[in-house]
Amino acid sequence: MDIIFYHPTLDAEPWARGLKQRLPGVNVRQWLPGDSGAADYALVRMPPIEMLQGRHALKGVFALGAGVDDILTALKKHPAMLPPSVPLFRLEDTGMGLQMQEYAVYTVLGWFRRFDDYRLQKQQVCWQPLPGYSRKNFVIGILGAGVLGRSVADSLTRWGFSVRCWSQSPKDIAGVASYHGVGQFRDFLAGTQVLINLLPHTPQTVGIINLEVLNQLNAGAFVLNLARGAHLVEADLLSALDANHIKAAALDVFITEPLPTTHPLWLHPRVAITPHNAAVTLPDEAMDYIASAIQLREAGDMPSGRVDLEKGY
What we know:
- The chain folds into two domains: 2-94 and 281-299, 3-Layer(aba) Sandwich (Rossmann fold); 96-273, Rossmann fold, CATH 3.40.50.720.
- It contains ten helices and twelve strands.
- It has helices at residues 12-22, 49-52, 69-77, 96-112, 115-123, 147-157, 185-189, 211-214, 234-242, 283-298, and strands at residues 2-6, 27-30, 41-44, 60-63, 88-90, 140-143, 163-167, 177-180, 194-197, 221-225, 246-251, 271-273.
- It is elongated, with a radius of gyration of 21 Å.
- The two termini are 27 Å apart.
């Protein structure tokens, strides 16, 4: 069995060693331009067009990240990049769920306990206890009810918060109010105090968090974007912050990355910024999933995590 590997920043050797331990007899090689040799599977992140083009013998392509928008964007420009018969798989969790939980819980508890306000008071040398929020009214709305959205929802309900999710299609999540479709979007937004974005990146979700949406949240609401920068209209968020309708935001992803040094988000006192590392690919967990998925494919079964190319996730 032959596996080709391409990642713009990761070294292929540790992946080759790890997969050989999990799949005895497998041959893993780093793909280089001009390599048209045999391959049964491909592990990729932002792959060059020529890496996958014409490889009809592939039994599966595994995207080494939480999203597959890099591949889908390339497919729109170059439809022949990936043969239609080749299934594309995303890493559903592989340790990313726990990382997203950590980020979301840390941020939400900080807002709930008003630690952001106390940090600003410290800068002003101000000693002033502040009234707390009520859990009953501190409603958390999560955009996206996939594996990561469900994981974050579960972690926040265990802290006693009222949590709701919105997705394109109906979902059933224990202890979480479920909304779906365009018809229920306004109801989902109404009364939401914290908006967390974990949507997949598709043409339908680009710019979904805009001024109209932000204005439907509670006055003094919070925004946490953990998905993709394209989901958020950054200028609209700044307007809502300056109007004091949105109290604060925490952003891990941006339209342009790295975020330009002159971008006004850097200077806003109510915006926390991290460099797109809310959840990173954990090699051991990722290789466990990939090895298990390959074993299922070799046995004639279809593993979970297959991407619907029409839906984009």
